[in-house]
Specification:
The chain is mostly helical. It folds into two domains: 62 residues, Glutaredoxin (3-Layer(aba) Sandwich); 128 residues, Glutathione S-transferase Yfyf (Class Pi), Chain A, domain 2. 54% of the residues lie in helices and 9% in strands. It has eight helices and four strands; from the N terminus they run ββαββααααααα. The strands form two sheets. Strands 1-2 form a two-stranded antiparallel ribbon. The chain has a two-stranded antiparallel sheet with strand order 3-4. α3 runs antiparallel to α4. The protein is globular, with a radius of gyration of 18 Å. Bound molecules: glutathione (GSH). The site of glutathione has 8 residues, from loops.
Length: 206
Amino acid sequence: MARHADTGGEKGDLCVSSSGVFQGANQDPEFLALNPRGKVPTLKEDGFVLSESLAIMAYLDRKFPEPPLFGRSDRETGRIWNVILDSTDYLEPIGQRIGAPIFMGRVAEERDDIRAAQKELVSELQKMEQKLSRQQWLATESLSAADIAVYPFIEVLLRAAGKEEARSLDLGLLPLGETYPALAAWRDRIKALPGYDKTYPPHWRQ
Ligand SMILES: N[C@@H](CCC(=O)N[C@@H](CS)C(=O)NCC(=O)O)C(=O)O
């Protein structure tokens, strides 16, 4: 079950349990002993166990300070957290209102709420698009924890948009570059990072 992954090649390797999570391996007693919520990522290092992706990122940043993921100055750190919290408090819940019904085959039942969430999503994505048409990364002049935290929300949305269930919704997300060229270019920059392939969920390749 344990799989080796890393944070982009520059922060050193860590061991996360990820393969098999969607086949139920995260409910193994061995895994639940590490993380009773049965969630990935979960990090184990010489008996030290940590869950929650942001906590793991903060830990790795402290352990491998170069390049810093949480900023080189007070203002950078503030901006990075601003982007992270904007995404966890707003973008992620909006994305879930759209993605969950698609993945769970409940589009017909939840169509009204999906439509409402779609409007909110467009507003969030347009803000990102405007920002990324002026700068390469979301919070600072180089890759930061903000980009790493936001990226999976975008990727899950795109995966949902590609599902048969999403066809009737006209989400306007595919191809991303047509509506959001700067966001698409940012996504390409993330995908080109060293180690990206190792972080890609194995079951998404199937
Ligand atoms: N807030 C957590 C979310 C973790 C999470 O939801 N992980 C998902 C995969 S992205 C998971 O483990 N799902 C398996 C399950 O819930 O059974 C974090 O950022 O680490």
